[in-house]
Design goal:
about 90 residues; alpha+beta; 3-stranded antiparallel β-sheet; two-stranded antiparallel sheet; 3 helices; 5 strands
Length: about 90
């Protein structure tokens, strides 16, 4: 982790609003089935579903630029995602 103590860098230099990492065109969702674990003391099973994103969805999921370290640009990472049901 970089040592940032005593470094004064304006936030506008660290987070320009115009620099985004556009999301890839395919979103892959991985589902985990714990049934084998719960009922048979076996390993869970998994399945994946691939969803093609529209241009607008890709822009909404774009990761924001957070800075540069040793010439390498860094963007936000996806920490968690939640599939919500409409109410």
């Amino acid at each position: 982790m970089p040592d940032c103590e005593g470094v004064a860098i304006p936030s506008s230099a660290l987070r320009p609003t115009f620099k985004l990492a556009l999301a890839p065109p395919i979103l892959t969702v991985v589902f985990r089935n714990d049934g084998p674990l719960i009922f048979c003391n076996d390993s869970p099973s998994y399945r994946t579903v691939r969803v093609r994103l529209t241009g607008e969805q890709r822009r909404q999921l774009a990761r924001r630029w957070i800075g540069v370290d040793r010439g390498q640009e860094h963007f936000e990472s996806i920490s968690q995602s939640i599939i919500e049901e409409e109410q």
